[in-house]
Amino acid sequence: MHEIVKSEGNTRKVRFTETAERVDRLFGKVRKQISKDLDMPGFRPGRVPRSIVDRQYGNIIKAEVADTIRQDLTSKLIEDQDWILDDTEADDEVELPVEGSPYSFEMTFSLFETPEPKGLDGISIEVPALDLEDAVAKTLESFREKLMSFETVDRPSQEGDLVMIEAAPAEEGGKPQEFSVRIGDSHIGEGFDLLVTGVEPGYTFSARMETPDQESGGNPVHRFRITDVRRPMLPDLNDTFAEKAAGLSSLKELRDKVEESVKSRYEQEVAYLKERTVIESLLASNPFDPPVYMVNNLTRDYLGRLGEEDPGEGTIKAARELAQDKVREFLILRAVAEKESVQVTPEEMEKEKSPEESEPSMMDRLRNRKALELILERADITDKEPTGEETAHAGDHEDQEASWKWTLVESDEAEATADAEEGS
């Protein structure tokens, strides 16, 4: 079917040969399709004489047969030889096939050679330590939060309380707007929690939104009345809670399930962290430009998944950058597998066999996965102890002054504003 007649550097000259039997079958198939589509006076579709079809469409038939054979044979060659192409060129003055005879042609292929991979050994990976007891406790606490209820109390409001509020209508005769704010978890705006902390039902106040550099009195005044204060009621951690939270018979069973889930999630996150650290290190240590056609194909695939009819330049650029890194990752791991003589056994192929994946694609995936595992075995993996830096950074935004915040309006000003609104 094919023979490599010349190998020089990264170029290969290949002679292909197709049997006369298959050439004849393809001629008949193409001729039949053309005849079927013809609308010629005096003949029914599919009944146009072969002599007429050949006289008018002979060269088209030959070209289509040649193209089909070329695509089939070159695809099989690339799969058999496991080549990555840089570009492909057919020799000039290629002859077309003739019925009744074998069809031979030559093509020259330029192969892409991934630079020898570097930086494979001793990649440093820091793995965050797992405080299992703390993680389980936080997970159970989150379950309690979901089953939380609130109970009316006869005392001033405090952190964590749910404060029921009635806002005066914007127009005379309108209905008051009712809403609630949980102190410490409010999203109504900076400073509002302070206005409703330490208050009791019946308390009224007026407030406006202001920016730090804004002159007082620029924005409208809103009037509020506290209608109820409710404290949070968390369920006890007991067997009844386990039944309500997860349909389990005991708290111990719930703890065991949570612990198992926390460990599994932690292992998945650590595995992903290790792989991404290795891949990012390899990409940084091995800069090269991958074949353009591979990047273009993957970019089109990414954009197709988005489903946007007309993606913007930013989207196209991001998709192309992602595709370029993904192709480089694929080629680097492929080169590692070749350098380290990584093999995939028939048993491994059979185990992962899938009708949705071609054999060459599966071979690439398994081989690259084993190459990645090999690098991970040589990595310098250490446990990262908590430093508290994340907590410190997370609270940095609290020290920054908000762009606007709620400000209490004194009673005299509030009354004056109300009178002005009524007068208008």
> From the 3D coordinates, which CATH architecture of the largest domain would you assign?
Orthogonal Bundle
Distance between the termini: 94 Å
Q: List low-confidence stretches.
A: 390-399
Can you give the helix content as a percent range?
Answer: 40-55%
CATH class of the largest domain, named Mainly Alpha
Structural class: alpha+beta
The CATH topology of the largest domain comes to Trigger factor, domain 2
Nearest-angstrom radius of gyration?
A: 36 Å
What about the largest sheet? 6 strands, antiparallel
What is the element string, with H for helices and E for strands?
EEHHEEEHEEEHEEHHHHHHEHHEH
What is the number of beta strands? Answer: 12
User: What portion of residues belong to β-strands?
Assistant: 15-25%
Oligomer: single chain
Mean pLDDT: 88
Tally of domains:
3
> How many H/I helical runs?
13
Envelope shape: elongated
Would you write up a description of this structure?
This protein has 424 residues and is an alpha+beta fold. It has 3 domains: 2-111, Trigger factor ribosome-binding domain (Alpha-Beta Plaits, 2-Layer Sandwich); 149-233 and 401-423, Chitinase A, domain 3; 250-384, Orthogonal Bundle (Trigger factor, domain 2). Helix content is 48%, strand content 19%. The strands form 3 sheets. Strands 6, 7, 8, 9, 10 and 12 form a 6-stranded antiparallel sheet that branches. The protein has a 4-stranded antiparallel sheet with strand order 1-2-4-3. Helix 3 (132-146) crosses helix 6. The protein is elongated and about 100 Å long.
